[in-house]
C-alpha cells in the first residue's frame, strides 16, 4: 500500500550558541519520526525537512518561508528561543501553516498558527518562586540573555518578588552566547543575594555555572544550600560539559527530567533504550520535540489530512498520551496543560525531583488568573503562605 508523504519542517539550530539544545531536539524529533514511519498501519509517512539556522535569529524566517513555499511543509516543528519563534510567527500566519513550539517561554502570546507545548510562567516560574522565596530569601540576583526571554522572565520575577515583600538586588543581561561573565560573579560576590535566577541560554548558561562554581569553592557562603542558582530553562544538556562540582546544587523547574519516576517515563525510557542504549540521558529538548512529532502524527492519523485547519481542530478536541503524561491543548489559547516538577542537580549531571504538581496545570499565558493571586503571595502575610508548598504540589522525600 502506497503511503502519503507528509513533509514536516524541523527548524532547530544545531550549531551556534545553543546548538547542544537543538541537537537534542532534532534527535528527539527524528526518533519519533522513525517510529511513526515504521508503523505499517499508518497511511502516511513523515518526511523531515531539516534546516539549521546556526543560532542566527534572522535566518529562521527565511528557512520557514522556504519550507512552506518551496518544500511543501504545512507544519514546522522547531525553534528554541523566543527571538526565533517571533521570526517564524509571521511566516506561518501569512501562509496558514502551523508552528509546533515545545520549549519553555515567557508567555504573553497566543496565536491560531502556533501549538504551544512548552511551559509558560504559571507552569514554571511561579512554582519555582513559591519554593525558593521562603527557603532562601527574597533578595534575588537576576541574570539573563539579552532578548525577550531574559527580559520578560526577569520582569515577572521582579513583580513576584515585590508582591512577596522582597527586592531584586540586581538585573543584568548579556549577549546571547556570551561566555565572559566574570563581572557577574564579582557583583554577586559583593552583593550576596539570597539566590540567583539564571535566564541564560546555551553556552552562556554553562559558562555562568562553571564561573559560579569557582566562587562557591572559594567561599562557603555561596554554597548551593546557601545561595543556589535557580532556573526555569536548565536541563541535563546544560550540565554535560561542566565539572562535577559545577553540575551540583542547581534548582530547576521543568515538565520533564530524565529521573522522573512516573509510569509514562519508565515506559518511554525502556522504549528509547532499544534505540540508544540504557545509558542515554533523556532531556527536555529531546522529549519535547519527540512529543510534538507524536501529537502531530496522532492528529494526522485521525484527521486523514495535514491541512492545518483540520489539525488545529483535532489537536484541541482530544487528549494525547505522551512521555510527560496525558496532554490536552486549550482550544482558546492553544497552550498545553502541563505538570511542573522541581528538581536539584547532582554531581553526575542528573536531577533529583523533590517536588511536583499533583496534576497538570492549565496554561495561563497572560497570567490573568495566576500572577497576582493574593492566595499565593499575599503582601500582608507572605510567610504564612510561603512556609509551605502550594496545595497543588506534592513534596517528594
Q: Treating each run of at least 4 consecutive H or I residues as one helix, how many helices?
A: 12
Whole-number total of structural domains: 2
What Rg is obtained from the alpha carbons, in whole angstroms?
21 Å
Structural class: alpha/beta
CATH superfamily of the largest domain: Response regulator
What is the CATH top level name of the largest domain? Alpha Beta
Largest sheet composition: 8 strands, mixed
Percent of residues in helices comes to 25-40%
CATH architecture of the largest domain: 3-Layer(aba) Sandwich
| Arithmetic mean of pLDDT | 92
What's the arrangement of strands in the largest beta sheet?
7-6-8-9-10-13-14-15
Count of DSSP E strands? 15
Q: Fill in the CATH topology of the largest domain.
A: Rossmann fold
Task: Please tell me what the overall shape is.
Answer: globular
DSSP strand (E) fraction? Answer: 15-25%
* pLDDT < 50 runs, ≥5 residues: 372-391
Q: What is the N-to-C succession of helices and strands?
A: EHEHEHEEHEHEHEHEHEHHHEEEEHE
End-to-end C-alpha gap: 53 Å
Protein name: Amidase
Organism: Rhizobium oryziradicis
Pfam families: Peripla_BP_5
GO molecular function: amide binding
Report on this model:
This is Amidase. Pfam families: Peripla_BP_5 (PF13433). It comes from Rhizobium oryziradicis. The protein is of the alpha/beta class. It has twelve helices and 15 strands. The chain has helices at residues 19-37, 57-69, 82-95, 125-136, 148-163, 182-191, 203-218, 244-247, 263-276, 284-303, 308-315, 382-386; strands at 4-11, 44-51, 75-78, 98-101, 114-116, 140-145, 170-174, 195-199, 229-231, 251-254, 320-322, 325-327, 341-345, 351-357, 393-395. The strands form three sheets. An eight-stranded mixed sheet has the order 7-6-8-9-10-13-14-15, with helices on both faces. A five-stranded parallel sheet has the order 2-1-3-4-5, with helices on both faces. β1, α1 (19-37) and β2 form a beta-alpha-beta unit. Mean pLDDT is 92; it is low at 372-391.
